Amino acid sequence: MTATNQAGTTQGVSVPTAVIAAATPPPPPPPSGPAGQIKLQNGKTSIPVTSVALPARLVIDGVQFTPNPVRSRRQPITLRVHLSDTRGFVVRDAPVFARSTPLVTRSEGEQRTGTDGYAEITLVPRASFPLRRGLNVQIFIRARKPGESILAGVSTRRLTQVRCAEDRRRDAWARVVRGPTR
Fold first, then answer.
1. CB under 8 Å to 4, separation ≥6 — which residues?
2. pTM across the whole model
3. Which of 11, 28, 123, 148 is most enclosed, with most CB atoms within 10 A?
4. Which CATH architecture has domain 38-178?
5. Predicted confidence (pLDDT) per residue in 89-113, tens digit
């Protein structure tokens, strides 16, 4: 080895070092964003409801009724609700509640959202459920974070409606029993 500076040049011998191993790559950085996130096959990210905190809020961003319109009081209504938050994450494990207003259905209580953000609630029509064309039944939906106020915090509410229609079989039977209308 040779070293040179203003004072001159000098030479020296260094002791050999051990074999140097290839450097291991650094570990990947931790994922940015909320704790407990899971990447879904559709490219979206699912997070537990416990990772949602103000100022973020829950959002009911999808509602689907089956059947729609409702034509029978004998067939349950399946309500499928999708939940996300204001940051665009899919939210899992959140309790979701639904009921008709006025109370013309029975429900099974709160259901939790799955990894995909969906909860399914079964509504059973009561005898007072209206089956007339042009009518709608309003459905109140609430999603919440356990341990927080259902009226504040990150919880959310949505009012939606399902269409009603005549039960064609019932109407046909009524015409047979009563006879044709004049």
1. none
2. 0.75
3. 123
4. Sandwich (2.60)
5. 999 999 999 999 999 999 989 999 9
